[in-house]
Each structure stands twice: as C-alpha cells, then as structure tokens.
Specification:
By secondary structure, the protein is an alpha/beta fold. The protein folds into two domains: about 45 residues, no CATH class; about 250 residues, Aldolase class I (TIM Barrel, Alpha-Beta Barrel). It contains nine helices and 21 strands. Strands 17-16-15-14-13-12-10-9-21 form a nine-stranded mixed sheet. Strands 1-7-6-5 form a four-stranded antiparallel sheet, with no helix packed on it. The chain has a three-stranded antiparallel sheet with strand order 2-3-4, with no helix packed on it. β16, α8 and β17 form a beta-alpha-beta unit.
C-alpha cells in the first residue's frame, strides 16, 4: 500500500510509463519508479493521482539574488559581471556535506515563495544589468523544463545562461539541458566510486560522462569545482589522478577550482579543510598539467589570480569576488607574449565587485504576457 499525496505541476519530460501505473523518471541515473501520488527522490518530479508525470516546482523559486559571476565560481566567463542567480528546491543527490542543504534538501513547498515566469526573470535580469542568469543553489537538472524555458527567454533577450550542477543526468536529458547553457560549473565531488556511493548515494562514472559530453559535444564554457573534505577526497594520489584525468579527457585549459570544506549538514563532525591542503591541491593539479587552477574559501591571493600559462604574467587579479587587475589586451591574450587565455572574454571586464543584491520578482511580474 502506497501513501498518496496531492501532486500538481506542469508536464515533465524524460519519463516512461510502466504497465503497473508507475512512471520511470529517466532524467538522471537514479531512474526512480514513481507511483501515482508520489514523488521521486529529488522531491520535485512526481506523478499525479491520474498518472501524469509532472514537475512540481515550475515557476517557483527559493529566492533571487544578483551576485558576481566569480561566486559560481566562473573565473573565465565574462569576469566581473553581475549574474541573476536562483534555485528551487530538492536535489537528485544526497550529499552529506551539502552547503545549501536548506534548499537542496527541502522536502516542503514552503521554501518556494518566489513565483516567477521566464518573462519575469528576463525583466529582472535586464533591470539589474545582469549579463547572465544562473541556475544554482540546488541542482538545476531536476527542474530541467523550467530552466530550459527560462534559458530560451533569456537568449531571445541577449542574456546568457549559467548552470551550476553536479552533472548527474542521463544522456538524453543531458543533451536537451546543455543545449541551452552558455556556461557551466560542474561539481566533480571526488574521484572515487566510494566517495560518491557513501557520501552522495550516487556514482562517479555518470559525472565523468557529463564532463566529457559538455566539453567535447557542446559550446558550453566549462569549469570544474571540487570541495576538498579531510579524509575523504583530499589525498595527494586522488588529487593528482583527478587532474591527470581532466588533462587527458578534457584538456589542460579547463579551469579547476578547489574549495575548502566547512562542517555542515550531516558532516559537522569533520574538521574544516586546512588552507595548506587546498593550496597543495592547486600545486599538484598544475604539476599534472592543468593551466588554470584556483583556491576558494581560504585566504590565498596567488590562488585566486589568473596567470599566463606561457610566461607567468598576471592576467586577471582577484581579491575575493572583486577584480583587482585586468591585463587581457588584446581581448583574451597575454599582453607580454601574446599567448591566448582560454575563456569567454570581452574587451573590458565588469565592475560588479562583491555586491550581493536580493531581488523580489513580484516587482517585475505586473505585465505578464497574455
């Protein structure tokens, strides 16, 4: 006997109905088999009592904020520019170390208090001068239908789109999702199957498949983030192996961000990552052949900057989320030796700085179309 709840939402894609009335959600590798009146593990994709497969969070957000693109983190995509960021609720991984657990682990609709259509989001971005819109805070692949519609509206208005995701998505859904993303930061949470299985109840290989796909089969600008957790994914051997894999399968120009862990969610008994560990990881990754490796959540002026991989000239200086130097003239090239710096750059950077600006969509939703 299953316990039913009232499920409502817009029609979802990437589902297949079984003979017994259940729906297999084929969005991600979990492939939840969902009974009528229930939701999948992500909480946002469910089946109505009539057997319809729906996305329950379409058009509803847990909040909108304009912040620096460097916070995503994206260091080689329109540096210094503001990005309108939002998320919904739920997640298709169960990371015990989640830093945004109040949204990604939400199992209640009361966190979704900011209704916004794609058109409203475009107006918000235009009014705030945001050069892009980021799907973040919880994993956007689970609200694919909403994210894709927002992305289409943004592109029609000349606004770019950014996905901050763990990359845990099946091939067909992946093809649809990333076709509409201009940039992505993908979490490579660890480099062992044990890490993904024990701390995220997932698997490593689907994430590696997503990384390969995005880099080789799309025009999406790609950067990678790894949160270093003491005793779990911070060994020299694992860091070096991961960096070598990136160089071999993606190339040396993909920026890699190492970030320091702080105790949260269900791993409050694990100590914070020492700054020395993060700085050492950067050094090991660069020794493995990566050209652009960064440190986060620690004080490290060198590890935040972008340098020419050929002559060592400072190209982009950073302090926190603020740019302190810009030496990419001509556009995207080292002024000393002329070597190209990989990325999506314009003649001048933005000057948004480290500002954090909450935005209320209700102020922009008065004139919805038809």
């Amino acid at each position: 006997m299953t316990v039913k709840e009232r499920i409502e939402g817009v029609a979802a894609r990437h589902g297949r109905k079984l003979e017994d009335g259940r729906v297999v959600c084929e969005l991600c590798p979990r492939e939840c088999k969902i009974h009528p009146g229930q939701r999948g593990l992500c909480y946002v994709r469910g089946v109505t009592d009539k057997g319809e497969f729906v996305l329950t969070t379409y058009g509803r957000s847990s909040g909108f904020v304009v912040d620096p693109i460097e916070k995503k983190p994206l260091y080689h995509f329109l540096p210094g520019t503001p990005v309108l960021s939002f998320g919904t609720a739920g997640c298709n991984l169960t990371c015990k170390f989640c830093q945004n657990w109040h949204m990604s682990k939400a199992s209640r609709d009361d966190v979704l208090q900011r209704p916004a259509t794609p058109a409203t989001i475009v107006r918000m971005a235009q009014a705030t001068g945001s050069r892009s819109v980021a799907f973040t805070y919880n994993d956007p692949v689970i609200f694919l239908e909403y994210a894709v519609d927002v992305a289409k509206a943004c592109h029609a208005a000349g606004i770019r789109t950014v996905a901050v995701t763990a990359g845990y998505i099946n091939p067909e859904a992946r093809k649809e999702f990333f076709a509409h993303m201009d940039a992505a930061n993908i979490d490579l949470k660890g480099f062992t199957e044990k890490f993904y299985r024990k701390l995220a109840s997932g698997h490593l290989e689907p994430v590696l498949d997503t990384l390969r796909y995005v880099y080789h089969e799309t025009d999406t600008w790609l950067e990678i983030t790894t949160l270093l957790i003491p005793g779990w994914n911070d060994s020299d051997e694992e860091i070096s192996a991961m960096a070598r894999w990136i160089v071999e399968h993606l190339g040396p120009d993909v920026p890699l961000h190492f970030s320091a862990f702080h105790p949260d969610w269900r791993m409050k008994d694990v100590p914070p990552t020492p700054p020395e560990t993060v700085m050492k990881a950067r050094r090991l990754a660069m020794e493995a052949g990566l050209r652009y490796v960064y440190t986060g959540n620690i004080r490290d002026s060198v590890g935040q900057n972008t340098y020419c991989h050929n002559c060592g000239e400072l190209l982009i200086g950073r302090m926190g989320y603020t740019l302190t130097a810009w030496n990419l003239e001509p556009i995207g090239k080292c002024p000393v030796c002329g070597t190209e710096c990989a990325g999506v750059f314009e003649e001048r950077p933005g000057n948004w700085g480290a500002r954090f600006l909450p935005v209320d969509p209700m102020m922009f939703s008065a004139h919805e179309e038809g």
